[in-house]
């Protein structure tokens, strides 16, 4: 038996239940630890949240925090802040075991003062230089980040081959 590396996904003040449900499902399917910083734009018993997460909730390792300061007082990092304002591309980073991928709320992203304090830890997903397409959907951005880290780690503990039925 060996210990699998730990990947932490942090949602800061998520607003849309379907996104959080999709992210929860990604975390359940990959063994990632989900951290949610309140306030949220919905309740955990929201039908839309459950529908998006389907029957994966019992598989989740999830921790809630009342505010961002609480999260930082308990967790040590390293932290990587996903933002459209970053200079670094997410795939250029070498992610260590125990890292935290931090994502902001859908309408505003992460607080700019937080990003300014940690510019070298801010990463972005490349997109067209087009003001009309400001950012990717939150659940898609999380999935891209999660699978980049897992790819770098050679997908530890994940099934790499499927099987067709006869």
Offer a concise description of the structure.
The mean pLDDT is 90.
Question: Which key phrases capture this entry?
Answer:
single chain; seven-stranded parallel beta sheet; 5 helices; alpha/beta; 166 residues; 17% strand
Please provide a written account of the structure.
- The protein is α/β, with parallel strands linked by helices and 166 residues long.
- 30% of the residues lie in helices and 17% in strands.
- The protein contains five helices and seven strands.
- It has helices at residues 17-30, 47-53, 68-74, 112-117, 138-152, and strands at 8-12, 33-37, 61-65, 79-82, 88-89, 100-103, 122-124.
- It has a seven-stranded parallel beta sheet with strand order 3-2-1-6-4-7-5.
- Helix 1 (17-30) runs parallel beside helix 5 (138-152).
- The mean pLDDT is 90.
| Spatial strand order of the main sheet | 3-2-1-6-4-7-5
Structural class: alpha/beta
Distance between the termini: 33 Å
Shape: globular
In this structure, how is the largest beta sheet organized? 7 strands, parallel
The gyration radius over C-alpha positions equals: 16 Å
Query: SSE order in H/E notation?
Result: EHEHEHEEEHEH
Given as residue ranges, the uncertain stretches (5+ residues, pLDDT < 50) are none
- DSSP strand count: 7
* Share in β-strands: 15-25%
